[in-house]
């Protein structure tokens, strides 16, 4: 919860306490006594406190007096005036010192404000850069996640294709095995047929040889038979 502004009563009490200890009631001293407060506000209330103090010069005109008494009064007025002038000069010097202190405090606060402004700007830039980097990283993460998902789907499809190809290869292997057995069977049958054909050809050749051998004998027998 924000603290309310420093009041005149607080400044006056702190100034009275400082004056009671014989110390100067300056802006910095009152600010340290109160623990906080705007230098401008303290300066305003401190001026009002000084104006309200009962040690200021008195003014007023007196009635006609005897010369001796008038001289005494004039001397007293001159002394009081000199004292008041000295006090006024002291107060002026104190006010100038306070003004210088206030200006220094203002310069310090201004420098702090500028430094804080620069820090806020730097933090804002760092935040913007961090947000930009975070956005880039998120985009990269999304891209990699999409790429991983695409590769996963491709791998799954490749696994399915490999399984289908393996089934096709197994089926083709079985058909090739069956075809090989069928070829072997046909080759054996062909070889058996060739052997049978060769055996038949050999038998036919043998029969032709026998037939050719019997023809001369028949011719000779016909020649030897007498004519009727």
Detailed description of the structure:
The chain is mainly α. Helix content is 85%, strand content 0%. It is built from 4 helices and no strands. Helix 1 packs across helix 2, helix 1 (8-20) packs across helix 3 (39-52) and helix 2 packs across helix 3. The protein is rod-shaped. Residues 56-62 have low confidence and may be disordered.
Number of strands: 0
- Main pleated-sheet profile: none
The quaternary organization reads as single chain
Kindly state the mean pLDDT as a whole number?
79
Helix count, DSSP H or I runs of 4 or more residues: 4
What Rg is obtained from the alpha carbons, in whole angstroms?
Answer: 67 Å
Strand content: under 5%
Can you tell me the residue ranges where pLDDT is under 50 for at least 5 consecutive residues? Answer: 56-62
Q: What class would the helix/strand composition place it in?
A: mainly alpha
Terminal-residue CA separation = 169 Å
Which descriptors would you attach to this protein?
228 residues; 4 helices; mainly alpha
What's the layout of helices and strands?
Layout: H1 8-20, H2 27-34, H3 39-52, H4 67-224
Helix pairs in contact: 1-2, 1-3, 2-3
Q: In a nutshell, what does this entry contain?
A:
With 228 residues, this protein is mainly alpha-helical. Helix content is 85%, strand content 0%.
């Amino acid at each position: 919860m924000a603290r309310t502004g420093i009041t005149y009563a607080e400044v006056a009490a702190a100034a009275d306490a400082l004056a009671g200890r014989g110390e100067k009631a300056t802006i910095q001293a009152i600010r340290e006594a109160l623990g906080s407060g705007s230098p401008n506000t303290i300066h305003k209330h401190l001026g009002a406190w000084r104006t309200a103090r009962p040690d200021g010069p008195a003014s007023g005109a007196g009635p006609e007096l005897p010369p001796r008494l008038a001289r005494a009064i004039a001397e007293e007025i001159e002394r009081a005036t000199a004292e008041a002038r000295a006090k006024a000069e002291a107060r002026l010097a104190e006010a100038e010192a306070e003004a210088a202190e206030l200006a220094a405090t203002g310069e310090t606060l201004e420098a702090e404000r500028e430094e804080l402004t620069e820090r806020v700007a730097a933090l804002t830039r760092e935040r913007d850069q961090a947000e930009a980097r975070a956005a880039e990283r998120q985009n990269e993460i999304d891209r990699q996640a999409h790429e991983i998902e695409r590769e996963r789907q491709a791998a799954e499809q490749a696994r399915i294709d490999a399984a289908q190809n393996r089934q096709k290869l197994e089926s083709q292997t079985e058909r090739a095995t069956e075809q090989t057995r069928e070829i072997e069977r046909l080759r054996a049958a062909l070889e058996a047929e060739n052997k049978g054909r060769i055996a038949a050809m050999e038998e036919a050749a043998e029969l032709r040889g026998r037939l050719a051998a019997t023809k001369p004998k028949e011719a000779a027998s016909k020649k030897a038979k007498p004519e009727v």
